[in-house]
Amino acid sequence: MTTENARERIHTFLREHTGGQPLADTDDFFALGYVNSLFAMQLAAFVEKEFALTLGPDDMDFDNFRTVNGLVRLATSRTNAQS
Questions:
Q1: Which ranges of the chain does DSSP label H, i.e. alpha helix?
Q2: Is there a contact between 32 and 51 (Cβ–Cβ < 8 Å)?
Q3: How far is it, in rounded angstroms, from Cα 23 to Cα 78?
């Protein structure tokens, strides 16, 4: 899994759930009001399904889910470690 591939897949998912709002990789989409706290569970489910991961308690740090960069870091660190 490349970082750019993960980034593209995450951006596609977020566009579908934020009304097509353009997001920079460092934008905190929760703080910007594009999504709510319940969306964090949808993000976790997306990451598990899209990247074939099982997230554990240590992965549930909110910083992993508030920006594209956090999601990319989570997805690629776990998928590359499992390869």
A1: 3-17, 39-50, 68-82
A2: no
A3: 23
pTM metric for this prediction: 0.89
Q: Which residues contact 4 (CB under 8 A, 6 or more apart)?
A: none
Reported as a single tens digit per residue, the pLDDT across 34-57 is 888 788 889 999 999 999 999 999
pLDDT digits (tens, 9 = 90+) for 10-33: 999 999 988 888 899 999 999 998
Query: How would DSSP label each residue in 22-64?
Result: ---TT--TTTTTSS-TTHHHHHHHHHHHHTT----GGGG-GGG
